[in-house]
Amino acid sequence: MLRVGGEPMRHGTMRERNLAVLLGEISAHGPVTRARLAAHTGFTKTTVSNLLAVLAEAGLVRDGDLVHEGERGRPGVGVTVNGEGPAGLGLEINVDYLAACVLDLGRRIRYRHLVTADNRARSPEDTAAGLSRLAHQAVDAAAEQGLSVTGAVVAIPGVLAGERVVHAPNLGWHDVPAAALLRDVLPPLLLPVGHDNEANLAALGELWFGAGRPLGDFLHVSGEIGIGAGLIVGGQVFRGAHGFAGELGHMAVAPDGPECTCGGRGCLERVAGQEAILRAAGLTGVTPGSSAGPRESISALVRLLRSGDAQAREAVAVAGRDLGTALAATVKVLDPDTVVLGGIFSPLARWIRTPVEAALENGALYGAVPPVVVSPLAGEAAVLGAAGLVIERIHADPARLLR
Amino acid sequence: MLRVGGEPMRHGTMRERNLAVLLGEISAHGPVTRARLAAHTGFTKTTVSNLLAVLAEAGLVRDGDLVHEGERGRPGVGVTVNGEGPAGLGLEINVDYLAACVLDLGRRIRYRHLVTADNRARSPEDTAAGLSRLAHQAVDAAAEQGLSVTGAVVAIPGVLAGERVVHAPNLGWHDVPAAALLRDVLPPLLLPVGHDNEANLAALGELWFGAGRPLGDFLHVSGEIGIGAGLIVGGQVFRGAHGFAGELGHMAVAPDGPECTCGGRGCLERVAGQEAILRAAGLTGVTPGSSAGPRESISALVRLLRSGDAQAREAVAVAGRDLGTALAATVKVLDPDTVVLGGIFSPLARWIRTPVEAALENGALYGAVPPVVVSPLAGEAAVLGAAGLVIERIHADPARLLR
Fold it and tell me: Which of A29, A206, B33, B61 holds its CA 20 to 30 A away from the CA of A234?
């Protein structure tokens, strides 16, 4: 069962479930007439009309153009999901940027914004204040398009437990009351604000908006300053017993490697994360506190790679080998259909995919190597997954917007 | 959804589902009166009576003593699962032994038998013939107790795909048509014979008959000549996309270690499996083709450990360290509530648990170390899981026994 921090899915009444069934049907098949909705759901026409009135009142559906659904009869009014009503806000706190996006109920992207920010250099409170500005801008921009943001989910690159961020070592956060912090500064919204692990939300973003749907059960690797992984099984995130599953970045790949912020040594993200790659490539200007943003830094690296720079190519090859080694161990216990390279590994794919595949193959059992594909979303998967989760929650329980 | 090799769960008719609901209720709460069954299931008393007649006809339930279920009314006839009717046969092919057990419908163990057999030294056909003798003995012994074995599941230490064993390197099996082989030699049974991976069945055995139920989501480690792992999530086995999940034994823990039958190098089972431990402990008599069985060999090791033998203790400590290192990586991606040491690690627990825990703690993220518990089933988990799966299948679809 999909959960958002601190807010388990409710068991609804019959009417609440029926509203969700009807909205799901309209979302999947709209525009669709009342007659067909009755036929598909098994509800009487009166029930369909009553439920539609409730959904329309909440701004979730609207009547559109006439549609003709078969060879017989006259065309009927087509009901669709209201793309100009409630909307979902996705937010992301990452180590070197903040991001926001807004999705309408039809899951179209209506707003996106990313700002570089060295969140290691400031307190959780200051970071939350920065996110607050981004969130208010997003809500205002959505309102200008006639959209009403009803809920938000925040992606955080760390281990979460209930309302708190237990560890986000790359942010320097330890036992931070994230939910309360965010609640205090975000714009007032109808639904409570959720928060979730960045790697899990990136996997959901990939599923809903990226390469995901045809991939079966896949492991999505989020390459940022840290490295996380999210496993999608049967269309849901596999979270593990404490939500710690997929901590790929802290697999030890270099026993004598550098110390990690997690307390370990030779962790994957210390040798194949964004900063490790940039440093190995000679892009030493990119350090904590520098003004170069993540996109600029990776763009600089890509320029070097394109120019055939040997040091840059070697840096990416080594990172790819280490990433592939960690993935080989992961694949032995998780057995995904596909591995998706996301985050910074997406723009680096042309150079990093081959060494990843070679190491994966080298460490694979009986040649059972899952295909490695490249995320079309790159660093946007998590914030899209966060906004998508708001939309999922509305679809799962539209009655929430009535209360 | 739980699957058995080559035989997905069927979607039943309403009557078939109702039979399963009623049998489940009787199994969980029996002895129970017809009146209470109607109250619990929401079926009418007539429906309950009709369904009970069908279940009784198939030998699945029987009337027992009078039971008094509340303060009011007279006692009624208590219906129970029939412990003297259909039964499930569990079979196991392992590298150095064959095993069988029979469970009645109430999941009580009614028969168990283990014979030492060096299955590496003989062909799949000869191994199947050996298993056939064990299976016929088990069916006969069950019949003497009034039980009728209706189905069997065979545990095999290898990677299975559909009807075939793709790889069972410790047995020397590659692309063996196991289902057909077994069908030909096993006694004729009402339900088709299933087969499944030994580590997965051992995890189910642990769940149903061992330490499992209170452990939440757990990772069960099967230590034999090979080392496998099975993850239980929400009461089901997590199998991965191709059923390869949990291949713990082939995690590389010693980059310069010995070659493995899988084609890799330094795999965990080459340094912490039964033969590696025995050899390191100086018990060199135990080699392929020797007449010493697995129980005798491990008993000899336990005697050495009890006597304080330094070489034996060092051998077990090193194996424990390597096992803990592999488990630390596994825990980072799977995040189980608990780790269960089974198979040979169970009798060795007094000496191996501490080094396992130390290595696990050393490699753990943020001290998130799952507790390590010891299986009470030792090497019997897989064969019990296999028999238990037959009983589960009968409970899930009792109508199968009517056809």
Answer: A29
